C-alpha cells in the first residue's frame, strides 16, 4: 500500500475497525445471551463480585505494568524477565515470613530494595551490552534471563506450591469512633483484606512513581532520556546512569507488587509468568511507554479478566484478556491513550 | 543476461550444498542407534521448524514469537482426523498445513493491514498462540487438557507414519520433511518472489513505489512458513505419540522453534540447520548431566530445572559474547556479500572475484 492510498483509506479503515468490534461484541452477546441475562438479573452478585475482585487485582497489574512500560519507554526493551523477577521478590518475601517471622507487609522494604539492586545489576551487566542492538537480541537476552531465573528458583525451592496465611485475615478496628471490620462487604461482594491492601498499596506506590517522574529532577531526566537520549546527553544528563536507574525503578515496581500479592496467591516458580503476560497486554493497551496508560490499562484488564471469567464459564479467564488485547491492537495500535501521550 | 548467470551461480551453490547435506544426513543412521538416533531426529525436526520460521522472520523480517500456533494446528489437525475419523496422518498433515497456512495468512493480514510493527507485531504473534492454547485447553472437541494419543498399530506402517521404536524410518521421514522445506526456501529465495520478499523487508516504501505489493509478499512468506511449520507438528505428534495444548501451543514451543535460527544466524539459508546441530545436543547434554551427575555435581542429583537453568545461562552467554550467533563470521560475510549484490549489482558483476 502506498502512503497516499493509506491516507485516503483512513476513514474507511476506521469504519472497518468499528464494524469488526461491534460484530465481535454481537457474536459474544449472541452466544452468551443466557449467561449475560443471568448475570444482569438473578446472578448479579456474581457479576459485582467479579468487578470488585477485578478492580482490586487490577491495581497490582497497574503497578507491574508501570514498571514494564517505564523500561520500554526509556530503554526500548521488552523485558521478558519482568515476571520472573517478580517471582524472585515473592520467594524472598516468603522466605522472610516463613523463616524469620517477618510480617508479610514488612517484607516490602526488603523486596523493593533487593529488586532495585538486581534491576540495576541486570541493566549494567547484561542489558547495557545490547542497547541499540536488534529487537530480537534484546528479547532473547531477557528471555534467557527469565528461563535462568525461573529454573534457578525451581532448583532452590522445588515446584511445591507455597502460601502464607495472614494472622489478621479477619478482624475489626475502632478508628475515631468508627468501627471498621474486615473482610469488607458491600453490595453483596466481599473484598478480602489482603486483596484490598494490595490494591491500596499498589495505587499509592503507582502514585509515588508518577510523582517521582513528574515532580523530581530525576523524573525529568528520565523523561528527557525517553524523549531524546542524544539531546538529554547534550544538556548534561548522564544517559547510561539514567538507563540503570530506570531499569532498577521498573524492577522495583515488581518487587513491591511481589510482597503485596504474596498473602493471597499460591507461590510457584512460574507464578510470575501470568503477571508477565498480563503486563504485556496492559502495556500495549495503554500505549507502550505511557505510564498513565499502564495505570488505567491495569485496572481495565483486571476487570476484563474477572468478568470474562464469569461470562465465559468454562474458559480460562485469560481468554477475554487476549481477545481485548487483539481488538485493541487493531483498533488503537497506538494505545488507548495514545494521542494523549506526553 | 549477466544477472541471470549471477543468479544461476547462487542457485547452483545452495543446491549443491543441499545435495551434499542430504547425502551426509541420509548416511548418518549407519552410525546412530538408540539414544543418538533420537537426538538426530530431534535435530532434524528443529532444523526444519527453524528453517520455516527463518523464512518469515529472517527473510521477510517479520519476527514471530508465536510459531507454536502453526505447529499446534498441524499437530491437532492430524490428531483429530486420525483419532476421531481414522484418516492417515499424511492426509491430516496436508489438512493441517492448509489450515495453518490460512490461519497465518488471516492473522497476518490483520496485523499488516493495521501496520503492526516491531514489538507490537512480536506480541501479537505471541498473543495468537496463547489464545489458541487457552481455547484448546477448554474445548471438549479436542479433549480439553487431556489431548490426544496416537492409536497404536500392531505392525509398522508407512501409511500410518508409525514404525517400531528404534526404527530409522522416523529419521528418514523427518529428513524428507527437512529437505523439502529447505528446497522450498531455496527455490523461493532464488525466484522473483524471493527477491520481492527481501525488498519489502529492507525497505517497504521503496518496494511499494517500484510496484511490489508488500502485503502480497509478506502474506506469501507468512503463509508458507506457517504451512511448513504445521508439517513439523504432524511429525511431532506421530513421533512422541501424544499431544496436549501446552505441548502444541505453549510459549516454550515457539522459543524452541526460533532459537536454532537465532543461534545459527537469522536470514541465512543454513543458519537454522547449524543452530539445531548445536542447540539440540546442548540441551541433551545438560539434561543428561542432571540425570547422571558426575561426582563433583552429585548434590544436584534429581533437582528438576537444572538443565533449563544451564540452557538459559548459555542463551544469555551466546547473546552477550557471540552477538552474531555461533556461526557469526560466516553468516555475516554472506550477508555483506548479498547486500552488496542487491544494492549494486553492476559492481558485483564486474568484481566477481568473491566466488
Word description of this protein:
The complex is a heterodimer of chains A (342) and B (355). By secondary structure, chain A is mainly alpha-helical. Chain A has one domain (14-340): ABC transporter involved in vitamin B12 uptake, BtuC, CATH 1.10.3470. Chain A has helices at 3-8, 10-31, 33-40, 44-75, 82-100, 107-125, 135-157, 193-215, 217-227, 229-234, 239-261, 271-286, 291-311, 318-331, and strands spanning 171-175, 178-182, 184-186, 189-191. In chain A, α4 (44-75) packs antiparallel against α13 (291-311). Chain B has 355 residues and is mostly helical. Helices cover 73% and strands 1% of the residues of chain B. Chain B has a two-stranded antiparallel ribbon. Chain B is globular, with a radius of gyration of 21 Å. Mean pLDDT of chain B is 83; it is low at 347-355. Classes of the chains: A mainly alpha (342), B mainly alpha (355). Chains A and B meet through α7, α12 and α14 of A and α4, α5, α8, α11 and α13 of B.
Amino acid at each position: 500500500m502506498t502512503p497516499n492510498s493509506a491516507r485516503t483509506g483512513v476513514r474507511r479503515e476506521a469504519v472497518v475497525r468499528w464494524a469488526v468490534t461491534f460484530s465481535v461484541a454481537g457474536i459474544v452477546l449472541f452466544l452468551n445471551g443466557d449467561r449475560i441475562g443471568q448475570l444482569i438479573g438473578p446472578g448479579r452478585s456474581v457479576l459485582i463480585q467479579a468487578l470488585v475482585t477485578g478492580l482490586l487485582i487490577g491495581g497490582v497489574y497497574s503497578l507491574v505494568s508501570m514498571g514494564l512500560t517505564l523500561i520500554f519507554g526509556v530503554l526500548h526493551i521488552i523485558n521478558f524477565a519482568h515476571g520472573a523477577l517478580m517471582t524472585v521478590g515473592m520467594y524472598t518475601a516468603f522466605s522472610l515470613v516463613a523463616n524469620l517471622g517477618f510480617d508479610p507487609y514488612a517484607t516490602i522494604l526488603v523486596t523493593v530494595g533487593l529488586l532495585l539492586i538486581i534491576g540495576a545489576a541486570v541493566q549494567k551487566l547484561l542489558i547495557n551490552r545490547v542497547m541499540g542492538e536488534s529487537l530480537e537480541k534484546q528479547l532473547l537476552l531477557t528471555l534467557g534471563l527469565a528461563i535462568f531465573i525461573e529454573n534457578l528458583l525451581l532448583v532452590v525451592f522445588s515446584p511445591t506450591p507455597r502460601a502464607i496465611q495472614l494472622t489478621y485475615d479477619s478482624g475489626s478496628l475502632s478508628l475515631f469512633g468508627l468501627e471498621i471490620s474486615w473482610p469488607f462487604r458491600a453490595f453483596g461482594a466481599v473484598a478480602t483484606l489482603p486483596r484490598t491492601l494490595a490494591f491500596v498499596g499498589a495505587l499509592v506506590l503507582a502514585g509515588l512513581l508518577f510523582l517521582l517522574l513528574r515532580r523530581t529532577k530525576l523524573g525529568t531526566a528520565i523523561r528527557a532520556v525517553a524523549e531524546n537520549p542524544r539531546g538529554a546527553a547534550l544538556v548534561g544528563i548522564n544517559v547510561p546512569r539514567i538507563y540503570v536507574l530506570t531499569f532498577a525503578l521498573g524492577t522495583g515496581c515488581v518487587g513491591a507488587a511481589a510482597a503485596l500479592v504474596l498473602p493471597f496467591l499460591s507461590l510457584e516458580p512460574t507464578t510470575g509468568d501470568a503477571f508477565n503476560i498480563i503486563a504485556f497486554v496492559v502495556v500495549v493497551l495503554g500505549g507502550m511507554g505511557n505510564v498513565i496508560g499502564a495505570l488505567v490499562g491495569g485496572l481495565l484488564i483486571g476487570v476484563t479478566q474477572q468478568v470474562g471469567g464469569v461470562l465465559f464459564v468454562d474458559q480460562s479467564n485469560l481468554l477475554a484478556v487476549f481477545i481485548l488485547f487483539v481488538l485493541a491492537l487493531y483498533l488503537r495500535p497506538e494505545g488507548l491513550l495514545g494521542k494523549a501521550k506526553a | 543476461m549477466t544477472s541471470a548467470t549471477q543468479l544461476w551461480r547462487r542457485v547452483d551453490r545452495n543446491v549443491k550444498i543441499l545435495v551434499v547435506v542430504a547425502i551426509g544426513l541420509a548416511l548418518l543412521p549407519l552410525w546412530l542407534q538408540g539414544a543418538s538416533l533420537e537426538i538426530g531426529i530431534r535435530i532434524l525436526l528443529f532444523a526444519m521448524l527453524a528453517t520455516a520460521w527463518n523464512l518469515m522472520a529472517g527473510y521477510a523480517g517479520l519476527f514471530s514469537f508465536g510459531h507454536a500456533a502453526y505447529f499446534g494446528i498441524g499437530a491437532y489437525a492430524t490428531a483429530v482426523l486420525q483419532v476421531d475419523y481414522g484418516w492417515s496422518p499424511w492426509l491430516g498433515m496436508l489438512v493441517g498445513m492448509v489450515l495453518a497456512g490460512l490461519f497465518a495468512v488471516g492473522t497476518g493480514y490483520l496485523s499488516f493491514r493495521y501496520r503492526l510493527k516491531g514489538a507490537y507485531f512480536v506480541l501479537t504473534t505471541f498473543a495468537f498462540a496463547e489464545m489458541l492454547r487457552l481455547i484448546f485447553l477448554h474445548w471438549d472437541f479436542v479433549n480439553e487438557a487431556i489431548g490426544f494419543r496416537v492409536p497404536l498399530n500392531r505392525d509398522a506402517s508407512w501409511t500410518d507414519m508409525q514404525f517400531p521404536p528404534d526404527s530409522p524410518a522416523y529419521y528418514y521421514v523427518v529428513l524428507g520433511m527437512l529437505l523439502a522445506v529447505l528446497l522450498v526456501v531455496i527455490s523461493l529465495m532464488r525466484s522473483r518472489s524471493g527477491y520481492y520478499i527481501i525488498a519489502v523487508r529492507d525497505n517497504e516504501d521503496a518496494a511499494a513505489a517500484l510496484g511490489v505489493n508488500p502485503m502480497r509478499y509478506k502474506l506469501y512468506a507468512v503463509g508458507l512458513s506457517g504451512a511448513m511449520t504445521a508439517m513439523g507438528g504432524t511429525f511431532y505428534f506421530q513421533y512422541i505419540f501424544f499431544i496436549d495444548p501446552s505441548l502444541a501451543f505453549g510459549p516454550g514451543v515457539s522459543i524452541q522453534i526460533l532459537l536454532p535460527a537465532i543461534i545459527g544466524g537469522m536470514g541465512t539459508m543454513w543458519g537454522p540447520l547449524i543452530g539445531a546441530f548445536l542447540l539440540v545436543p546442548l540441551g541433551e547434554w545438560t539434561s543428561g548431566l542432571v540425570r547422571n551427575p558426575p561426582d563433583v555435581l552429585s548434590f544436584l542429583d534429581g533437582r528438576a530445572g537444572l538443565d533449563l537453568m544451564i540452557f538459559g545461562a548459555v542463551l544469555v552467554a551466546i547473546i552477550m559474547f557471540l552477538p552474531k550467533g555461533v556461526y557469526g563470521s560466516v553468516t555475516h560475510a554472506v550477508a555483506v556479500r548479498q547486500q552488496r549484490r542487491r544494492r549494486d549489482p553492476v559492481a558485483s558483476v564486474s568484481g566477481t572475484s568473491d566466488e
